[in-house]
Amino acid sequence: MKKVNRLITVLIFIFLYAPMLVLMIASFNVGKDITDFEGFTFMQYVEVFKDRSLLTLLGNSLIISVLSSAIATVFGTVSAVGIHSMKPRMRKTVMNLTNIPMTNPDIVTGISLSLLFVFVGTKMLGQRNALTFWTLLIAHITFNLPYVILNVMPKLQQMDRSLQDAAMDLGCTPIQSFFKVTVPEIMPGVISGAIMAFTMSLDDFVISYFVTGLDFITLPVEIYNYTKKQLQPKIYAMFTMLFLLIFVLMVVMNLLQIRQDKQKAAKKA
Predict the structure, then answer these.
(1) Which of 78, 172, 212, 266 is least crowded, fewest Cβ atoms below 10 Å from its Cβ?
(2) pTM surpassing 0.90?
(3) 229-239: per-residue pLDDT in tens?
């Protein structure tokens, strides 16, 4: 039975990562046909850094991802602390409500946010262009919040509450206790939530497509227009770099988790 389980696991990983492997190989191809490898070259990566429009789009995506993940991390951490202080029944109800945006289809979230922004922008604020950089940023913060809360909550539950009481007995105010005791204890969860929020924001297309204005377009939205015709090989190179960036972030997140678990095990010993 174990051999069958291992075989199924291997087949799943092959199915998941084979497309990326093909994409990576294509990014080093001299020719434009992905089915015919004509020779090895780094020119596709050079072309990426020569294309100013592509770099501008990548910069837009990074700006949105960094800002939205940073803001969502702050608000998500504070929200998690507030939820953790609730009574068990209320906490469970609020967590169920918090998890709904993650299970809700992206297209439903995107359309509903778009309708909200257009209504507020045109009817209430009298703007001609209701969808702007700010609507895109608000949308990304909105769908990033649950991921931050989901990563911070387990750390709060694992933390010994007596640590805060001890800090206040030693003269700390509640705010000082929060920053000197609570924040260091939950920091691995905060970092994991920030990294996950960043990757989700950088990768998002569906929600961004419905809330993006004409003044600020992200890379995934523009790439959608590229797919309507034959993709240029430099796009494969761009995809490969984005995949490696997210892969490195996931490795860092896992290493931080392993380090935290070892430190806790050492303390208990």
Answers:
(1) 266
(2) no
(3) 677 778 888 88
